[in-house]
Amino acid sequence: MTLSASAENSVDIREARARSLAAKYANATPSEILDVAINEEFVDEITLVSSFGAESAVLLHLVAQVAPDTPVLFIDTGKHFAQTPIYRRKLARQLGLTNVIDLKPATDEAAEIDPDGSLWQSDTDACCTLRKVRPLNKALDGYSAWITGRKQFHGGARVHLPVFEFKGTHFKVNPIVSWKPEDVDTYFKAHDLPPHPLVEQGFPSIGCWPCTHPVAPGDDVRAGRWRGQSKTECGIHRS
Ligand code: SF4
């Protein structure tokens, strides 16, 4: 077997494993899915990637109940609203998460590619690659799986997401993929979770300040992200 055939075979095996897990745990609760992922399937090889955005407290709380020392990766793009890093610290402390790691763009790359910090004005894809995709890809080298808070109701490429998937080089675990907005609200209230301060200002999805706008009631949750552009995802979920 050639090297590339061997690699393809390996990908096939991991895709099959993800499909099998997705089928087996399609109707499991988020806590059951997290327990299986963290304590059985990907022991010491799994991380949670969180934006500490509008809905993030739910998954962070769920993970904290299963294993509060799970590594949590927060991509600090340098372009967050001022409220987000404050919320990140407050939430981590309140939930007892002991291993939150801030990822930042490489200083030399930022100096070369975006010296004055205005790249987002001319090329949002390049800016997201510099500030989100590359730092995350580098950090994910140490893991075989990551937990995401993506949900089918977010629309776009997310409507058919399964609970487990294998994309590119990593497994992804999506424990609350089938949750609706009302499930998120109920969980926030049941566990008295603090909302991100921008939610009450009309931001149901919160990213970087240059690329996030408030939305009208009833609008798509992510309608305020990269408004006026065809872009709907930052690229970290592209395989
Ligand atoms: S969301 Fe906007 S500011 Fe943030 S990394 Fe992407 S293009 Fe840059």
Describe the protein.
- It contains 8 helices and 6 strands.
- By secondary structure, the chain is of the alpha/beta class.
- The chain has one domain: HUPs (Rossmann fold).
- It has a 6-stranded mixed beta sheet with strand order 3-2-1-4-6-5.
- Strand 2, helix 4 and strand 3 form a beta-alpha-beta unit.
- Helix 2 crosses helix 3.
- The protein is globular.
- The chain starts with a helix and ends in a 49-residue tail after the last helix.
- Bound molecules: iron/sulfur cluster.
- Iron/sulfur cluster binds next to helix 7.
- The site of iron/sulfur cluster has 13 residues, from helix 7.
Summarize the structure.
α2 (30-41) packs across α3 (56-66). This protein is 40% helix and 10% strand. The protein has helices at residues 3-24, 30-41, 56-66, 83-95, 107-113, 119-122, 124-140, 181-190, and strands at residues 46-50, 72-75, 100-103, 145-147, 164-167, 170-173.
